[in-house]
C-alpha cells in the first residue's frame, strides 16, 4: 500500500470517528489562513460540511481575488443541517480582506483582517438578531522549500467575543506537501482561544478549476471544543494550482 493510500485511510478513519467521540454541546469557529494566491481577477466558491458532535453544519464562502494581490471573501459558518447544535453559534457570517506581499518566488506574506457577526446569537439576547462583533487579524508568512513542500508561520489576534475567554494572541504554523494531484495540508493555531486547534486535510486537484478534500479538525486542550470533520470543495473561475 502506498504512503498516500495510508494517509487517506487514516484521515477517513478519524473523520468518521470524530462525531462518535464527541460529548455534549460546544462551539467552534474556523479561520481560513490561505486566501487565494494562485490567480488574479477570479472568483472562487467553496462549500464544506462539518460533522460535529451529534450535528452537521454547512460552511459556504465566496472569494474575489483582485489584480493587485488583494482578496475579499464573504463566508458563513455553522449553518445547521442536522442535530442539536449550540444556537448561540450558528450562521456566523464574516468578511475577510487580505493582502499578499510577494517578496520572491519562494517567500510571501499574507496580511488579513476578518470581522462579522453571529446572525443568531444567544449572547445578544435578541433571538434572530445580531450578536457580538467577532474580529480577527493575522499575518501568515509562506516559504516554498521545494516543488513539493511549502511551510508557513505567523501570528494572530482575536477579540474577546470570538475568543470566548481571556486569550487574545497566538501563533500559527503549518505545511503543504504535494505529490501529483494530491496535497496534504496541515494548519495549527496555538493559544487557548475558541479558534485554537489544528486542521489536517487531503486535497485532490484532479481538475484545474476544482479542488475536493476531506479531513479533520483537532481541538486545542481546554477550549471546550471537540473533533469535527471536513468534507468540501472549491470551484474557481481560474486555476486553483
Structure description:
The protein is mainly β and about 240 residues long. It has a single domain (about 5-235), classed as Porin, CATH 2.40.160. It is about 10% helix and about 55% strand. The chain has helices spanning about 5-20, 160-165; strands at about 40-50, 55-65, 70-80, 90-100, 105-120, 135-145, 150-160, 170-180, 180-190, 195-205, 210-220, 230-235. Strands 1-2-3-4-5-6-7-8-9-10-11-12 form a twelve-stranded antiparallel beta barrel. The radius of gyration is 17 Å and the shape is globular. The two termini are about 25 Å apart. The model is unreliable at about 5-25 and about 120-130 (pLDDT under 50).
Radius of gyration: 17 Å
- The CATH architecture term is Beta Barrel
Order of helices and strands: HEEEEEEEHEEEEE
Q: Number of helical segments? A: 2
Strand order of the largest sheet: 1-2-3-4-5-6-7-8-9-10-11-12
Please give the alpha-carbon distance between the first and last residues: 27 Å
Question: Which outline best applies?
Answer: globular
The CATH topology annotation reads as Porin
Query: Which CATH class is shown?
Result: Mainly Beta
User: Strand share of the residues?
Assistant: over 45%
Q: What does the main sheet amount to?
A: 12 strands, antiparallel, barrel
Amino acid at each position: 500500500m502506498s504512503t498516500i493510500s495510508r494517509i487517506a485511510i487514516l484521515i477517513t478513519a478519524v473523520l468518521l470517528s470524530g462525531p462518535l467521540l464527541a460529548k455534549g454541546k460546544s462551539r467552534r469557529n474556523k479561520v481560513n489562513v490561505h486566501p487565494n494566491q494562485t490567480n488574479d481577477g477570479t472568483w472562487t466558491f467553496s462549500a464544506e460540511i462539518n460533522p460535529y458532535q451529534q450535528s452537521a453544519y454547512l460552511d459556504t464562502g465566496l472569494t474575489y481575488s483582485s489584480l493587485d494581490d488583494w482578496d475579499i471573501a464573504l463566508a458563513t459558518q455553522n449553518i445547521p443541517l442536522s442535530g442539536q447544535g449550540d444556537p448561540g453559534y450558528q450562521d456566523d457570517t464574516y468578511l475577510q480582506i487580505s493582502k499578499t506581499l510577494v517578496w520572491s518566488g519562494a517567500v510571501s506574506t499574507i496580511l488579513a483582517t476578518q470581522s462579522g457577526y453571529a446572525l443568531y446569537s444567544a449572547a445578544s439576547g435578541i433571538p434572530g438578531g445580531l450578536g457580538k462583533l467577532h474580529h480577527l487579524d493575522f499575518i501568515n508568512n509562506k516559504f516554498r522549500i521545494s516543488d513539493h513542500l511549502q511551510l508557513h508561520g505567523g501570528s494572530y489576534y482575536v477579540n474577546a467575543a470570538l475568543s470566548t475567554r481571556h486569550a487574545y494572541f497566538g501563533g500559527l504554523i503549518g505545511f503543504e506537501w504535494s505529490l501529483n494531484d494530491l496535497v496534504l495540508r496541515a494548519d495549527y493555531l496555538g493559544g487557548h482561544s475558541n479558534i485554537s486547534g489544528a486542521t489536517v486535510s487531503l486535497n485532490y486537484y484532479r481538475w484545474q478549476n476544482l479542488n475536493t478534500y476531506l479531513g479533520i479538525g483537532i481541538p486545542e486542550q481546554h477550549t471546550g471544543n471537540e473533533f469535527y470533520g471536513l468534507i468540501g470543495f472549491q470551484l474557481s473561475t481560474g486555476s486553483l494550482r
